[in-house]
Amino acid sequence: MADKVELLMNIVGTELRRAQAAHKPMTSAHEGYAVIQEELDELWKEVKTNPPDRRKMAVEAIQTAAMAIRLCLDVLLPDGGRNPETNWTLFLARLDEGGEE
């Protein structure tokens, strides 16, 4: 199962990098939400199609996941010039403790 997860995360990462090259960074949580909602609406459209096309649904699900990650990278992760891994670890630990950044 881990191999499938790793493969899928690589595919999402490729889609994320494609989107980063094609579009400016997100500038707010509102913009990020709107982009994710648009991708989710496209996924919902594919889900409702009869007969369903699993490939098209997968493409839309991957794009939705990539945009959720992009929101985190562009808007939600604090940027202080520090190690991004440390930033994420501390940021998420504070959330787990019920605190704010």
Give a verbal description of the structure.
- There is one protein chain.
- The protein has one domain.
- It contains four helices and no strands.
- It has 101 residues and is mainly alpha-helical.
- It starts with a helix and ends in a 5-residue tail after the last helix.
- It has helices spanning 2-22, 29-48, 54-76, 84-96.
- Helix content is 76%, strand content 0%.
- It is globular and about 45 Å long.
- 9% of the residues are buried.
Count of DSSP helices? 4
The major β-sheet equals: none
**Overall number of structural domains:** 1
Instruction: Estimate the mean pLDDT confidence.
Output: 87
How many runs of DSSP E, i.e. beta strands?
0
What proportion of the residues form beta strands (DSSP E)?
A: under 5%
Can you write the helix and strand succession as a string? Answer: HHHH
Spans where pLDDT lies below 50 across 5 or more residues: none
Protein name: NTP pyrophosphohydrolase MazG putative catalytic core domain-containing protein
Short summary:
With 101 residues, this protein is mainly α.
How are the secondary structure elements laid out?
Layout: H1 2-22, H2 29-48, H3 54-76, H4 84-96
Helix pairs in contact: 1-3, 2-3
